[in-house]
Amino acid sequence: MTAPRLICGSAAALALVSLAVTLWTGVDERGVALAFGVLIAVGELTRFRPLTSGWAEGTPTTRTRAREAAPVGAAGALSYALLGEVAGPPALPHALDSARAGGTPVGAAQVVTVVLAASLLGGVPHIWQGRSPGPDHLARRVLTVGFAAVCCQPLHSRAVFGTLDGPAHALLVLLLLALTELFDAVLAAALAHSRNRWPFGPLLRDELRGLLGIGSAVCATGAVMALAVPVAGLWALPVFCLPLLLTQLSLRRYAAVRATYRQTIASLARSTEVAGYTPAGHARRVAALSRAVGRDLGLSGAELTVLEYAALMHDIGQLSLVDPVPAGATAGLPPEEQRRIALLGGAVVRQTGVDAAVAVVVERQADPYQEQPVAARIVRAVNAYEEKARGAGPGGPLKALEELRLGTSGDYAPEVVESLARVLSRDCLTLPSAG
Fold first, then answer.
1. Predicted TM-score of the model (pTM)
2. What is the DSSP string of 12-47?
Protein backbone atom coordinates (compact mmCIF):
# COMPACT_ATOMS: atom_id res chain seq x y z
CA MET A 1 0.00 0.00 0.00
CA THR A 2 1.34 3.43 -0.96
CA ALA A 3 1.84 6.20 1.58
CA PRO A 4 -1.06 8.39 0.31
CA ARG A 5 -3.50 5.49 0.52
CA LEU A 6 -2.24 4.51 3.94
CA ILE A 7 -2.40 8.06 5.30
CA CYS A 8 -5.78 8.87 3.76
CA GLY A 9 -7.15 5.49 4.85
CA SER A 10 -5.93 6.02 8.40
CA ALA A 11 -7.46 9.50 8.46
CA ALA A 12 -10.78 8.16 7.17
CA ALA A 13 -10.80 5.39 9.78
CA LEU A 14 -10.00 7.85 12.57
CA ALA A 15 -12.71 10.22 11.35
CA LEU A 16 -15.34 7.46 11.23
CA VAL A 17 -14.48 6.16 14.69
CA SER A 18 -14.45 9.68 16.13
CA LEU A 19 -17.81 10.49 14.53
CA ALA A 20 -19.36 7.28 15.85
CA VAL A 21 -18.06 7.90 19.38
CA THR A 22 -19.24 11.52 19.32
CA LEU A 23 -22.72 10.55 18.11
CA TRP A 24 -22.92 7.89 20.81
CA THR A 25 -21.73 10.01 23.73
CA GLY A 26 -23.01 13.40 22.58
CA VAL A 27 -21.18 16.69 22.28
CA ASP A 28 -19.70 18.13 25.47
CA GLU A 29 -19.29 21.88 25.90
CA ARG A 30 -21.38 22.62 22.81
CA GLY A 31 -20.75 26.34 22.95
CA VAL A 32 -17.01 25.78 23.03
CA ALA A 33 -17.25 23.31 20.17
CA LEU A 34 -19.28 25.83 18.16
CA ALA A 35 -16.81 28.63 18.84
CA PHE A 36 -13.79 26.59 17.74
CA GLY A 37 -15.72 25.15 14.80
CA VAL A 38 -16.54 28.65 13.56
CA LEU A 39 -12.91 29.71 13.98
CA ILE A 40 -11.61 26.71 12.01
CA ALA A 41 -14.22 27.15 9.27
CA VAL A 42 -13.34 30.84 8.92
CA GLY A 43 -9.67 29.87 8.72
CA GLU A 44 -10.43 27.46 5.87
CA LEU A 45 -12.56 30.06 4.12
CA THR A 46 -9.68 32.54 4.17
CA ARG A 47 -7.09 30.05 2.96
CA PHE A 48 -4.88 31.44 0.20
CA ARG A 49 -4.03 29.58 -2.95
CA PRO A 50 -0.52 28.23 -3.64
CA LEU A 51 1.36 29.82 -6.48
CA THR A 52 1.43 27.93 -9.75
CA SER A 53 4.21 28.25 -12.25
CA GLY A 54 3.44 27.59 -15.88
CA TRP A 55 7.08 27.45 -17.00
CA ALA A 56 6.97 23.70 -17.42
CA GLU A 57 5.04 22.96 -20.57
CA GLY A 58 2.25 20.56 -19.81
CA THR A 59 3.56 19.93 -16.30
CA PRO A 60 2.82 22.96 -14.13
CA THR A 61 4.80 23.08 -10.94
CA THR A 62 2.81 24.02 -7.83
CA ARG A 63 4.77 25.57 -5.01
CA THR A 64 3.35 26.83 -1.76
CA ARG A 65 5.30 29.83 -0.53
CA ALA A 66 3.94 29.41 2.96
CA ARG A 67 3.98 26.04 4.66
CA GLU A 68 0.41 26.44 5.91
CA ALA A 69 -2.11 28.01 3.53
CA ALA A 70 -4.81 28.21 6.24
CA PRO A 71 -2.89 29.28 9.37
CA VAL A 72 -5.93 30.51 11.31
CA GLY A 73 -7.71 27.19 10.82
CA ALA A 74 -4.58 25.23 11.74
CA ALA A 75 -4.02 27.28 14.90
CA GLY A 76 -7.66 26.88 15.93
CA ALA A 77 -7.55 23.12 15.38
CA LEU A 78 -4.35 22.74 17.42
CA SER A 79 -5.72 24.94 20.19
CA TYR A 80 -8.92 22.89 20.44
CA ALA A 81 -6.88 19.66 20.61
CA LEU A 82 -4.83 21.08 23.50
CA LEU A 83 -7.74 22.72 25.31
CA GLY A 84 -8.72 21.79 28.82
CA GLU A 85 -11.43 23.59 30.76
CA VAL A 86 -13.02 26.89 29.80
CA ALA A 87 -13.31 29.84 32.13
CA GLY A 88 -16.78 31.05 32.95
CA PRO A 89 -19.16 32.76 33.08
CA PRO A 90 -19.87 32.10 29.41
CA ALA A 91 -17.51 34.12 27.28
CA LEU A 92 -19.80 34.56 24.29
CA PRO A 93 -23.40 35.77 23.96
CA HIS A 94 -26.57 33.68 24.06
CA ALA A 95 -25.59 31.56 21.08
CA LEU A 96 -22.91 30.03 23.28
CA ASP A 97 -24.79 29.85 26.56
CA SER A 98 -23.86 26.21 26.95
CA ALA A 99 -20.23 27.10 27.56
CA ARG A 100 -20.11 26.75 31.31
CA ALA A 101 -17.51 27.42 33.94
CA GLY A 102 -15.20 24.69 35.02
CA GLY A 103 -16.08 22.40 32.11
CA THR A 104 -14.60 19.01 31.49
CA PRO A 105 -12.15 18.04 28.74
CA VAL A 106 -13.94 17.35 25.49
CA GLY A 107 -12.15 14.16 24.50
CA ALA A 108 -10.07 13.26 21.45
CA ALA A 109 -13.02 11.87 19.44
CA GLN A 110 -14.98 15.11 19.74
CA VAL A 111 -11.93 17.18 18.81
CA VAL A 112 -11.41 15.21 15.58
CA THR A 113 -15.13 15.36 14.74
CA VAL A 114 -15.40 19.13 15.23
CA VAL A 115 -12.20 19.84 13.30
CA LEU A 116 -13.28 17.57 10.43
CA ALA A 117 -16.77 19.08 10.20
CA ALA A 118 -15.47 22.65 10.36
CA SER A 119 -12.74 21.98 7.77
CA LEU A 120 -15.26 20.45 5.38
CA LEU A 121 -17.68 23.33 5.90
CA GLY A 122 -14.98 25.94 5.34
CA GLY A 123 -13.77 24.12 2.24
CA VAL A 124 -17.15 24.06 0.48
CA PRO A 125 -16.65 27.42 -1.34
CA HIS A 126 -13.19 26.32 -2.50
CA ILE A 127 -14.57 23.01 -3.78
CA TRP A 128 -17.41 24.87 -5.53
CA GLN A 129 -14.87 27.05 -7.35
CA GLY A 130 -12.65 24.11 -8.23
CA ARG A 131 -9.89 25.15 -5.83
CA SER A 132 -10.11 22.30 -3.33
CA PRO A 133 -6.83 21.66 -1.47
CA GLY A 134 -7.35 17.93 -2.03
CA PRO A 135 -7.64 14.89 0.25
CA ASP A 136 -4.01 15.04 1.40
CA HIS A 137 -4.58 18.32 3.21
CA LEU A 138 -7.66 17.05 5.03
CA ALA A 139 -6.01 13.73 5.91
CA ARG A 140 -3.02 15.54 7.40
CA ARG A 141 -5.28 17.87 9.36
CA VAL A 142 -7.31 14.97 10.81
CA LEU A 143 -4.30 12.84 11.72
CA THR A 144 -2.31 15.75 13.14
CA VAL A 145 -5.18 17.00 15.29
CA GLY A 146 -5.96 13.44 16.34
CA PHE A 147 -2.34 12.95 17.39
CA ALA A 148 -2.37 16.15 19.46
CA ALA A 149 -5.73 15.33 21.04
CA VAL A 150 -4.75 11.76 21.91
CA CYS A 151 -1.57 13.06 23.54
CA CYS A 152 -3.19 15.96 25.42
CA GLN A 153 -6.81 15.14 26.31
CA PRO A 154 -5.97 12.13 28.54
CA LEU A 155 -3.62 14.42 30.50
CA HIS A 156 -6.52 16.82 31.08
CA SER A 157 -8.80 13.97 32.11
CA ARG A 158 -6.27 12.83 34.71
CA ALA A 159 -5.76 16.41 35.90
CA VAL A 160 -2.04 16.22 35.09
CA PHE A 161 -1.97 19.87 34.02
CA GLY A 162 -3.61 20.92 37.27
CA THR A 163 -0.63 19.64 39.25
CA LEU A 164 1.82 21.80 37.28
CA ASP A 165 2.69 25.42 37.87
CA GLY A 166 2.54 28.03 35.09
CA PRO A 167 5.97 27.56 33.45
CA ALA A 168 5.79 23.76 33.62
CA HIS A 169 2.30 23.81 32.13
CA ALA A 170 3.42 26.04 29.27
CA LEU A 171 6.51 23.92 28.60
CA LEU A 172 4.43 20.74 28.45
CA VAL A 173 2.04 22.38 25.97
CA LEU A 174 4.99 23.51 23.83
CA LEU A 175 6.48 20.01 23.93
CA LEU A 176 3.20 18.50 22.75
CA LEU A 177 3.02 21.10 19.98
CA ALA A 178 6.58 20.32 18.88
CA LEU A 179 5.79 16.60 18.68
CA THR A 180 2.61 17.36 16.76
CA GLU A 181 4.39 19.53 14.23
CA LEU A 182 7.12 16.92 13.78
CA PHE A 183 4.41 14.33 13.15
CA ASP A 184 2.76 16.63 10.60
CA ALA A 185 6.10 17.28 8.85
CA VAL A 186 6.73 13.54 8.50
CA LEU A 187 3.24 13.08 7.02
CA ALA A 188 3.75 15.92 4.54
CA ALA A 189 7.16 14.62 3.45
CA ALA A 190 5.84 11.07 3.10
CA LEU A 191 2.95 12.23 0.91
CA ALA A 192 5.20 14.33 -1.33
CA HIS A 193 7.77 11.51 -1.56
CA SER A 194 5.15 8.97 -2.61
CA ARG A 195 3.27 11.18 -5.07
CA ASN A 196 6.25 12.93 -6.72
CA ARG A 197 9.05 10.41 -6.06
CA TRP A 198 11.30 13.10 -4.66
CA PRO A 199 13.89 12.11 -2.01
CA PHE A 200 12.32 11.89 1.45
CA GLY A 201 15.21 13.42 3.38
CA PRO A 202 15.29 16.82 1.62
CA LEU A 203 11.49 16.98 1.71
CA LEU A 204 11.46 16.45 5.46
CA ARG A 205 14.23 19.02 5.85
CA ASP A 206 12.18 21.58 3.91
CA GLU A 207 9.11 20.85 6.02
CA LEU A 208 11.09 21.34 9.23
CA ARG A 209 12.56 24.58 7.90
CA GLY A 210 9.03 25.73 7.18
CA LEU A 211 8.32 25.56 10.90
CA LEU A 212 10.62 28.54 11.37
CA GLY A 213 8.25 30.72 9.35
CA ILE A 214 4.48 30.63 9.45
CA GLY A 215 4.64 27.26 11.22
CA SER A 216 6.09 28.86 14.36
CA ALA A 217 3.34 31.50 14.29
CA VAL A 218 0.67 28.78 14.04
CA CYS A 219 2.19 26.84 16.94
CA ALA A 220 2.58 29.93 19.11
CA THR A 221 -0.99 31.08 18.46
CA GLY A 222 -2.38 27.61 19.13
CA ALA A 223 -0.46 27.33 22.39
CA VAL A 224 -1.44 30.82 23.58
CA MET A 225 -5.12 30.22 22.83
CA ALA A 226 -5.07 26.84 24.59
CA LEU A 227 -3.58 28.51 27.67
CA ALA A 228 -5.69 31.69 27.50
CA VAL A 229 -9.17 30.27 26.95
CA PRO A 230 -9.28 28.51 30.36
CA VAL A 231 -8.43 31.85 31.98
CA ALA A 232 -10.05 34.53 29.80
CA GLY A 233 -12.86 32.56 28.18
CA LEU A 234 -13.83 32.24 24.56
CA TRP A 235 -13.22 35.91 23.77
CA ALA A 236 -9.54 34.94 23.70
CA LEU A 237 -10.10 33.24 20.33
CA PRO A 238 -10.68 36.33 18.14
CA VAL A 239 -8.24 38.39 20.20
CA PHE A 240 -5.30 36.04 19.73
CA CYS A 241 -6.17 35.06 16.14
CA LEU A 242 -6.13 38.67 14.94
CA PRO A 243 -2.30 38.90 14.72
CA LEU A 244 -2.18 35.61 12.81
CA LEU A 245 -4.83 36.86 10.42
CA LEU A 246 -2.78 40.01 9.78
CA THR A 247 0.25 37.79 9.18
CA GLN A 248 -1.75 35.84 6.65
CA LEU A 249 -2.68 39.02 4.82
CA SER A 250 1.01 39.94 4.72
CA LEU A 251 1.79 36.53 3.26
CA ARG A 252 -0.77 37.13 0.54
CA ARG A 253 1.00 40.35 -0.42
CA TYR A 254 4.38 38.64 -0.27
CA ALA A 255 3.08 35.87 -2.54
CA ALA A 256 1.81 38.47 -5.01
CA VAL A 257 5.22 40.16 -5.04
CA ARG A 258 6.96 36.84 -5.60
CA ALA A 259 4.56 36.03 -8.44
CA THR A 260 5.38 39.34 -10.12
CA TYR A 261 9.10 38.68 -9.57
CA ARG A 262 8.86 35.28 -11.27
CA GLN A 263 6.84 36.71 -14.13
CA THR A 264 9.56 39.33 -14.66
CA ILE A 265 12.23 36.65 -14.80
CA ALA A 266 10.13 34.60 -17.22
CA SER A 267 9.73 37.66 -19.44
CA LEU A 268 13.49 38.28 -19.42
CA ALA A 269 14.05 34.64 -20.32
CA ARG A 270 11.73 34.98 -23.32
CA SER A 271 13.74 37.90 -24.67
CA THR A 272 16.18 35.51 -26.37
CA GLU A 273 13.26 33.73 -28.02
CA VAL A 274 11.62 36.96 -29.16
CA ALA A 275 14.94 38.15 -30.62
CA GLY A 276 15.34 34.86 -32.48
CA TYR A 277 18.42 33.66 -30.63
CA THR A 278 16.84 30.53 -29.11
CA PRO A 279 13.87 28.33 -30.08
CA ALA A 280 10.49 29.01 -28.53
CA GLY A 281 10.01 27.34 -25.15
CA HIS A 282 13.65 26.32 -24.75
CA ALA A 283 14.19 28.20 -21.49
CA ARG A 284 10.96 26.87 -19.95
CA ARG A 285 11.80 23.30 -20.87
CA VAL A 286 15.32 23.57 -19.45
CA ALA A 287 13.96 25.15 -16.25
CA ALA A 288 11.32 22.45 -15.75
CA LEU A 289 13.74 19.57 -16.26
CA SER A 290 16.49 21.26 -14.22
CA ARG A 291 14.11 21.59 -11.29
CA ALA A 292 13.17 17.91 -11.57
CA VAL A 293 16.84 16.91 -11.57
CA GLY A 294 17.52 19.22 -8.63
CA ARG A 295 14.71 17.56 -6.69
CA ASP A 296 16.14 14.15 -7.48
CA LEU A 297 19.56 15.25 -6.21
CA GLY A 298 18.04 16.52 -2.96
CA LEU A 299 18.36 20.30 -3.34
CA SER A 300 16.44 22.39 -0.83
CA GLY A 301 13.57 24.71 -1.70
CA ALA A 302 15.77 27.82 -1.79
CA GLU A 303 18.38 26.05 -3.93
CA LEU A 304 15.68 24.88 -6.33
CA THR A 305 14.45 28.44 -6.75
CA VAL A 306 17.95 29.67 -7.64
CA LEU A 307 18.36 26.72 -10.01
CA GLU A 308 15.06 27.41 -11.75
CA TYR A 309 15.76 31.12 -12.19
CA ALA A 310 19.25 30.41 -13.53
CA ALA A 311 17.90 27.80 -15.94
CA LEU A 312 15.36 30.29 -17.25
CA MET A 313 18.06 32.91 -17.87
CA HIS A 314 20.95 30.65 -18.88
CA ASP A 315 20.93 31.82 -22.53
CA ILE A 316 20.48 35.53 -21.91
CA GLY A 317 24.15 36.16 -22.72
CA GLN A 318 23.41 35.39 -26.37
CA LEU A 319 21.75 38.80 -26.66
CA SER A 320 25.26 40.28 -26.77
CA LEU A 321 26.21 38.31 -29.87
CA VAL A 322 26.28 40.04 -33.25
CA ASP A 323 25.55 36.80 -35.11
CA PRO A 324 23.12 34.37 -33.41
CA VAL A 325 24.27 30.82 -32.76
CA PRO A 326 22.38 28.46 -35.12
CA ALA A 327 19.24 27.26 -33.26
CA GLY A 328 20.73 28.75 -30.08
CA ALA A 329 22.72 25.53 -29.54
CA THR A 330 25.65 26.66 -27.41
CA ALA A 331 26.60 23.13 -26.29
CA GLY A 332 28.48 22.56 -29.55
CA LEU A 333 30.53 25.77 -29.40
CA PRO A 334 34.21 25.85 -28.40
CA PRO A 335 34.71 26.04 -24.61
CA GLU A 336 36.12 29.59 -24.81
CA GLU A 337 33.05 30.83 -26.67
CA GLN A 338 30.74 29.10 -24.21
CA ARG A 339 32.48 30.77 -21.27
CA ARG A 340 32.34 34.18 -22.97
CA ILE A 341 28.58 33.87 -23.50
CA ALA A 342 28.12 32.64 -19.93
CA LEU A 343 30.04 35.60 -18.49
CA LEU A 344 28.04 38.00 -20.64
CA GLY A 345 24.85 36.37 -19.36
CA GLY A 346 25.96 36.70 -15.76
CA ALA A 347 26.68 40.38 -16.27
CA VAL A 348 23.18 40.89 -17.69
CA VAL A 349 21.59 39.02 -14.79
CA ARG A 350 23.48 41.16 -12.26
CA GLN A 351 22.17 44.33 -13.90
CA THR A 352 18.56 43.13 -13.63
CA GLY A 353 18.69 43.06 -9.83
CA VAL A 354 18.05 39.31 -9.61
CA ASP A 355 19.66 37.39 -6.73
CA ALA A 356 23.44 37.30 -7.14
CA ALA A 357 23.39 33.52 -6.65
CA VAL A 358 21.47 33.23 -9.92
CA ALA A 359 24.13 35.28 -11.72
CA VAL A 360 26.86 33.01 -10.35
CA VAL A 361 25.14 29.93 -11.74
CA VAL A 362 24.71 31.58 -15.16
CA GLU A 363 28.36 32.72 -15.22
CA ARG A 364 29.77 29.32 -14.29
CA GLN A 365 27.60 27.04 -16.44
CA ALA A 366 30.45 26.67 -18.97
CA ASP A 367 33.26 25.98 -16.45
CA PRO A 368 34.72 22.49 -16.02
CA TYR A 369 32.14 20.59 -13.99
CA GLN A 370 34.65 19.84 -11.21
CA GLU A 371 34.76 23.60 -10.49
CA GLN A 372 31.03 24.28 -10.83
CA PRO A 373 28.38 24.56 -8.13
CA VAL A 374 25.71 21.87 -8.31
CA ALA A 375 23.15 24.19 -9.90
CA ALA A 376 25.53 25.12 -12.73
CA ARG A 377 26.28 21.44 -13.37
CA ILE A 378 22.58 20.74 -13.67
CA VAL A 379 21.88 23.65 -16.03
CA ARG A 380 24.77 22.70 -18.28
CA ALA A 381 23.77 19.03 -18.57
CA VAL A 382 20.05 19.70 -19.02
CA ASN A 383 20.67 22.44 -21.59
CA ALA A 384 22.90 20.13 -23.59
CA TYR A 385 20.33 17.34 -23.41
CA GLU A 386 17.52 19.60 -24.61
CA GLU A 387 19.60 20.95 -27.50
CA LYS A 388 20.69 17.49 -28.63
CA ALA A 389 17.25 15.89 -28.25
CA ARG A 390 15.30 18.74 -29.85
CA GLY A 391 14.02 17.86 -33.29
CA ALA A 392 16.07 14.64 -33.44
CA GLY A 393 13.07 12.36 -33.90
CA PRO A 394 11.81 9.47 -31.73
CA GLY A 395 15.30 8.25 -30.86
CA GLY A 396 16.64 11.73 -30.12
CA PRO A 397 16.24 11.72 -26.32
CA LEU A 398 17.99 8.37 -25.92
CA LYS A 399 20.80 9.36 -28.28
CA ALA A 400 21.24 12.70 -26.49
CA LEU A 401 21.47 10.96 -23.13
CA GLU A 402 24.11 8.58 -24.43
CA GLU A 403 26.13 11.53 -25.74
CA LEU A 404 25.98 13.12 -22.31
CA ARG A 405 27.18 9.88 -20.71
CA LEU A 406 30.12 9.80 -23.10
CA GLY A 407 30.95 13.36 -22.03
CA THR A 408 31.12 12.63 -18.31
CA SER A 409 34.89 12.33 -18.52
CA GLY A 410 35.23 16.10 -18.75
CA ASP A 411 32.15 18.05 -19.77
CA TYR A 412 29.24 16.85 -17.62
CA ALA A 413 29.03 15.72 -14.01
CA PRO A 414 28.35 11.95 -13.90
CA GLU A 415 25.93 12.21 -10.96
CA VAL A 416 23.90 14.86 -12.78
CA VAL A 417 23.69 12.80 -15.97
CA GLU A 418 22.57 9.73 -14.04
CA SER A 419 20.02 11.82 -12.17
CA LEU A 420 18.74 13.15 -15.49
CA ALA A 421 18.42 9.59 -16.74
CA ARG A 422 16.43 8.61 -13.64
CA VAL A 423 14.10 11.56 -14.03
CA LEU A 424 13.51 10.86 -17.71
CA SER A 425 12.92 7.18 -17.09
CA ARG A 426 10.76 7.64 -14.00
CA ASP A 427 8.56 10.42 -15.26
CA CYS A 428 8.61 9.39 -18.93
CA LEU A 429 9.78 12.89 -19.81
CA THR A 430 10.76 13.49 -23.40
CA LEU A 431 10.97 17.20 -23.96
CA PRO A 432 8.85 18.29 -26.93
CA SER A 433 10.55 19.98 -29.82
CA ALA A 434 10.02 23.65 -30.39
CA GLY A 435 8.50 23.01 -33.77
1. 0.74
2. HHHHHHHHHHHHHH--SSHHHHHHHHHHHHHHHHT-
